[in-house]
């Protein structure tokens, strides 16, 4: 029962709701940037820099907005890392991960509803480049996840007194950099 201490409090549910809403907004905006609005008979190539910046700046903005409410995890990998570092309880992490997954589904659902079917394409779904194995794709995902978690840990280290810039922006740039690196390995379906 100690693991569930504080679960039934208003701040707890505010934090869980924050994770849900942050993930909903992130998925809606970020995947929305992958939609190719050009005419079907003359499709334009995807602007990968624009898409990467949208992912990164969305995360930076949402971490800034929700960080004081929930910690601004907005990613199950971040939540799991916080459990491993004993920054949050296992019970809280379970609620966070469920909220993040439901928020992602809701964000994708809203995007699906508001996007005309003739331009929807894959709605940002990615797949491993056909020239590479799924193992390569997994390795790339592990590398960019490590890079993100390392940035978060380094930027949020309470023992550091030399951080004068925006932690949220550092995290956002980390997401954008990871996205730019991984885009050649995991391609966006129907727009490249």
TrEMBL record:
For this UniProt record, give its keywords in alphabetical order, as a comma-separated list: Cell membrane, Cell projection, Endosome, Glycoprotein, Lipoprotein, Membrane, Palmitate, Phosphoprotein, Repeat, Transmembrane, Transmembrane helix, Transport
Gene3D superfamilies (alphabetical): Glycerol uptake facilitator protein
Q: Which residues cross the membrane?
A: 20-37, 49-72, 93-115, 135-155, 167-189
Q: Give yes or no: UniProt keyword Lipid biosynthesis.
A: no
Record GO cellular component, one term: sarcolemma
Q: Which Pfam families match?
A: MIP
Q: What is its main location?
A: membrane
Query: What membrane topology term does the record carry?
Result: Multi-pass membrane protein
Report the domain of life of the source organism: Eukaryota
Q: Which GO terms describe its molecular function?
A: water channel activity
Protease keyword on record:
no
Location in the cell reads: Basolateral cell membrane; Cell membrane, Sarcolemma; Cell projection; Endosome membrane
Q: How does it assemble?
A: Homotetramer. The tetramers can form oligomeric arrays in membranes. The size of the oligomers differs between tissues and is smaller in skeletal muscle than in brain. Interaction between AQP4 oligomeric arrays in close-by cells can contribute to cell-cell adhesion. Part of a complex containing MLC1, TRPV4, HEPACAM and ATP1B1.
Q: Which family does it belong to?
A: Belongs to the MIP/aquaporin (TC 1.A.8) family.
Database matches in PANTHER family = AQUAPORIN TRANSPORTER, AQUAPORIN-4
Q: What is this protein called?
A: Aquaporin-4
Protein's organism: Aquarana catesbeiana (American bullfrog)
Tell me the classification of the organism that encodes this protein: Eukaryota, Metazoa, Chordata, Craniata, Vertebrata
């Amino acid at each position: 029962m100690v693991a569930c201490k504080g679960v039934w409090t208003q701040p707890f549910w505010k934090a869980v709701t924050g994770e849900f809403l942050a993930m909903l907004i992130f998925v809606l905006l970020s995947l929305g940037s992958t939609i190719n609005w050009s005419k079907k008979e003359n499709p334009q190539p995807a602007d990968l820099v624009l898409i990467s910046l949208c992912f990164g700046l969305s995360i930076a903005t949402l971490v800034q907005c929700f960080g004081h409410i929930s910690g601004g995890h907005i990613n199950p990998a971040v939540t799991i890392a916080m459990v491993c570092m004993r920054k949050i309880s296992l019970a809280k992490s379970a609620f966070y991960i469920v909220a993040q997954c439901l928020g992602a589904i809701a964000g994708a659902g809203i995007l699906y509803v508001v996007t005309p079917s003739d331009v929807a394409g894959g709605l940002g779904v990615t797949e491993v480049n056909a020239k590479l194995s799924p193992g390569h794709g997994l390795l790339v995902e592990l590398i960019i996840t490590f890079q993100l978690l390392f940035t978060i840990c380094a930027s949020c280290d309470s023992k550091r007194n030399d951080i004068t810039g925006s932690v949220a922006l550092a995290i956002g740039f980390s997401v954008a950099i990871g996205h730019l690196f991984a885009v050649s390995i995991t391609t966006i379906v129907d727009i490249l």
